[in-house]
Design a protein that fits this description.
Layout lengths: L1 E3 L13 E3 L3 H11 L8 E4 L2 H13 L6 E4 L6 E6 L4 E6 L13 H4 L5 E5 H4 L3 H17 L2 E5 L9 H13 L3 E5 H8 L4 H7 L5 E5 L5 E5 L2 E5 L12 H14 L4 H15 L12 H9 L2 H6 L1 H4 L2
Parallel strand pairs: 1-5, 3-4, 7-8, 8-9, 9-10
Antiparallel strand pairs: 1-2, 5-6, 10-11, 11-12
């Protein structure tokens, strides 16, 4: 559960906070469900009001919650956002939370039939069992007929670069789709650009490198596609990476090409940065179709956003 002061307020002075169901994997699940995909979420929640609220909001969004368990003895994890104008501080209170109880025993339910399994490096940071779950998942999924989508999502507030770097690189190299930001790759592995990142993981079938407002790169077998981000005035950037992943994955699940996948990714990210919440109402079907067919110059100018 995420707690956020109203726009323009700081935690030190705010008289109230807004509650949002959020978290990297949750954001992707909700966005994909809103875009019409069948989505299930696997986790553990505390048997408390926060857990109940998350459960009900996931159900409302159309996410299958049948594989979420409730823990009587563990609380639901919470974190606070503190937007300071130029950057957002994240304050996590997840130690000992219900979600830290997930582990290798939860791999079998995750492999029960999905075409695609999405996970992030944040889960790996929650503890040894959580990291072991992801290790087992990325190795077992291909044999079950599933592909793994992995968002590196390094959070320095949860673990150090020295701890995270080797673990996240190992998980990425074993996944079929990988999302990583240029900035976090530079911190974790000392890379300087998208090409450097590709050299680190040449075996990944689809490697997507994000670079904030700069163009995103998609590396597939023998091809590189580059698509510029949409020009947008950012209100709050947290959650944009999750929306980006959801837009890209939605296009991949529908059999779209890499250019359209990156455009949908940018479009969902652009709609999310206009709110202080971590996810927003998705683009309409008409906007997604327009994003697929707009010429390159009109796309780069942001003409699509003028239609919203």
């Amino acid at each position: 559960m995420q707690l956020t002061p109203p726009a323009g307020k700081r935690l030190t002075s705010a008289q109230m906070v807004h509650l949002h169901t959020a978290g990297a994997e949750v954001n992707v699940a909700i966005a994909l469900a809103q875009l019409g995909h069948r989505v299930a979420f696997i986790s553990r929640l505390g048997d408390d009001p926060f857990g109940e609220r998350i459960l009900q909001e996931l159900i409302q969004a159309g996410v299958d919650v049948s594989m979420i368990s409730r823990e009587m003895s563990r609380p639901t994890g919470v974190y606070f956002k503190d937007h300071g104008g130029t950057r957002t501080g994240m304050y996590y209170y997840r130690e000992g939370s219900a979600a830290t109880m997930i582990g290798p025993q939860d791999v079998a339910p995750a492999l029960a039939g999905p075409k695609l399994i999405h996970a992030t490096g944040i889960t790996a940071a929650l503890g040894h069992d959580c990291a072991a779950l992801l290790d087992q998942l990325v190795h077992a999924a291909p044999g079950s007929g599933s592909s793994v989508s992995f968002d590196v999502n390094y959070r320095s507030a949860l673990w150090s670069r020295e701890q995270a770097g080797p673990v996240l690189l190992r998980l990425a190299r074993c996944s079929q789709i990988v999302f990583v930001g240029c900035d976090e790759a530079a911190v974790l592995w000392g890379t300087k650009n998208a090409d450097d990142i590709r050299e680190l993981m040449p075996q990944v079938s689809r490697l997507v490198v994000k670079d904030s407002a700069a163009p995103a790169h998609s590396f597939t077998s023998g091809a590189t596609v580059i698509v510029p981000a949409l020009p947008v005035r950012v209100v709050e950037a947290v959650g944009a990476g999750d929306a980006f992943a959801a837009g890209y994955l939605s296009a991949v699940l529908r059999g779209m090409d890499e250019r359209i996948a990156l455009r949908w990714a940018h479009l969902l990210a652009a709609t999310t940065v206009l709110t202080v919440a971590d996810h927003a109402a998705p683009p309409t079907h008409e906007m997604l179709v327009a994003a697929a067919h707009l010429d390159d110059e009109a796309w780069a100018r942001g003409d699509l956003l003028d239609r919203s």
